[in-house]
Amino acid sequence: MKREQLTEKILDIKREKGWTWKYITDEIGGMSPMLVVGALLGQMKLVKPLAKAAAELFGLSEVEERMLNEVPYRGTPMPPTDPLIYRFYEMVMVNGPAFKALIEEEFGDGIMSAIDFDIDMERVANPKGDRVKLTMTGKFLPYKYYGAEQGTPEYGFKEG
Predict the structure, then answer these.
(1) Which CATH number fits the domain that encloses residue 48?
(2) Measured between alpha carbons, how far is 43 from 70 in angstroms, rounded to an integer?
(3) Which residues, in sequence order, are bridge partners of residue 136?
(4) Residues noted as catalytic
(5) Which domain holds residue 56?
(6) Can you give the pTM of this predicted structure?
């Protein structure tokens, strides 16, 4: 079985049972719903106790349970073709230069981690139509200036 086939099996069971992602993530627990759903969709891994909980919930085999605990091959072809996912890509394409300039001005020469990272989603009522609120936090990782000599900063933190 390939990981894509396990994802399809999980989605089939979800449909058959009429489960919501909220129900599934509440049953599995243990980490952010975003990470649990990501793992069930094949983009993240579940630690062993959560892989076991997912396997029990979905009635998966031991091999399928172990597959949920494997580090997956992550990502999708670019640019994404799904309209919702494409809008995230578009937000970064359009706003990325401003994100970069503002982050570098505040923190220095580096990046925001997508590994040491948190994201939360919530629904916000609005009379013009409900809004999707995403809150993302990522650790700032300064570039290392390798070969830096005495008196030269070793890392790209914002200079005083």
Answers:
(1) 1.10.260.40
(2) 10
(3) 119
(4) 87, 90, 113
(5) 3-68
(6) 0.82
